[in-house]
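SAMPLE LOG
Freezer: B-3
Tube label: C17
Construct: single chain, 680 aa
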Amino acid sequence: MKLNTIACVVLASSMFLACNKTKTEGTGNEELKAGTENFEFSIDQFADIEVLKYQVPGWENLTLKEQTLVYYLSQAGMAGRDIIWDQNYKHNLKIRQALEHIYVNFAGDKATPDWQNFETYVKRVWFSNGIHHHYSNEKIKPEFSEVYFKELMSTTKAELAPEVVAILFNNQDSKKVNLDLSKGLLKGSAVNFYGEGITEAEVDAFYNKMKPADPLRPLSTGLNSKLVRDANGKLVEKVWKSGGMYGDAIDKIIYWLEKAKTVAENQKQADALGLLIRYYQTGDLKIWDEYNVAWVQATEGNIDYNNGFIEVYADPLGHRGSYESVVQIKDFDMSAKMEVISKNAQWFEDNSPLLPAHKKKNVVGVSYKTVIVASESGDASPSTPIGVNLPNADWIRAEHGSKSISLGNIIDAYNHAGGSDRLKEFAHDEEEVRLEEKYGEIADKMHTALHEVVGHASGQINPGVGTPKETLKSYASTLEEGRADLVGLYYLYNPKLQEMGLVDNWKEMGMAAYDGYIRNGLMTQLVRLDLGADIEEAHMRNRQWVSAWVYEKGKKDNVIEKIVRDGKTYFNITNYEKLHDLFGELLKETQRIKSEGDYKAAQNLVENYGVKVDQAIHKEVLARNAKFKSAPYRGFVNPVIVPKTNDKGEITSFEMEYPKTFAEQMLYYSKNYGFLPLNN
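STRUCTURE (predicted):
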């Protein structure tokens, strides 16, 4: 599971509007702070997006062997970049090729509004890894005509089939991921995970036949394949592996992973890499599980990574994993400070409001690190998570534990690129502003840690109940993210955090956390939606259903009051203690839903509280937000790790270089990592 970065936010799970921070006190990363004074974080801004750079503090302190490991792992990650483009939409690669050909070869007038709109469109497609918005999933609409686009194609001799050109401008394949049941989860989704005409019922029947050899340790069926019909109309899986679908790119991934294995920091790390290589070679999901167990147990060393088909948010049925890679360096200072949460994981579980039958008796192996990102690819780039907890298989987490990380330099880059005006616009009063400015940043970090370390590791499924993707179906992802959010919220307002030495004032920090979550869940996250749209993204849904549920349930005691002042709406928390109890009550129910596989209750919770938007408030929020110049979405270019060699071709050192523009990096990636055919 991952915490997304949305808008100017540091904590996507709780959406505390970290772009409102003007200070960096309390980040715990003094080395980074010292080097930010002359560092230009912003590299480009267009449409609703700002592209930033991030620093990699401590790189120069790594040994040459460690730097080489980071380089090889980064190359492995980049080698799979085209996979996410094809997964997102079957025509994306051919569309990208045509757009980039025009972008590079057009020699006409570049001062016209049409060309400028074309440039913006290309950048938006780059940022989203395809023609659908990275967050809303809506198809990105060109602000130039089809006639002008055909003129560009003719002038530059670009090639793109007429029927694909038409798709850019019509309503076909308008949603990458559709979660509106009335439109059909598969029929309404353009994501390239299923063949034409396949229905949800057929998919369910296909996987229901796959009875696990060990019901207590079920495989992640469907995680690494596309489900299609063969020549006889029978459903079959096209497995993503060497020699299979995406094999050309996967072979490059394997090549770099094999090199990484030769410079592994220790045997456990090398063993895990070996299993990942075998998994890519065979596509065997049992080996994927073996790899994840080995990866969880490889906790020593300064370098770590995620690589594979991991998160299932882009599959409306929750089976198929999007390709992603993150390569990271341990941040020793912050990791040491946060390790106390991992060590107290059992205390948090024992003292949670869950029903006794739903609590884990023995929370196993939850490791937590703050890391410095060195490279990201696939579903993690340019839009990046800021927190990750893996693996996703519940049985592995229960038996072997999990790894939780917070991407420290990404969070710090967001903080340095922000301002405070939006906070003052939507906060109810000066006290709310004061609390956010003083404690908002540490509240973000604490919620990230509690969400990832305690939240995702908490609770257990009742014996005999299937996995959430089987029982809760399209609601599984948002229920899981909301459940982890609620664990964090329940403990953010607790003196235990101060007793553990993590905060200096648990009460005010908790108040800031609650203010920020409710403010965002009921109002400010709506800046990411077009007026009239429903909420479909899993994290955004969970923030609304959590906030709307506690608001409604607390009405009789006026726990959260809705105030309209000078035509502007505010939500003011009047009783933090009762709100804390409501979060606990909702956490108990959400865990019950997961533990019992109660689909109807999940549907009622999400559909009644997390999907529909108050249109009057939405219109108001958009109007109030219009005066701010900061983009509602942010993402990153990666530094380019450049090896330096001697006369024998041996690597002697590395340099970190940054692209001058967003376009420069995107074109560089297409040229150097374009390993897939246009049709897969």
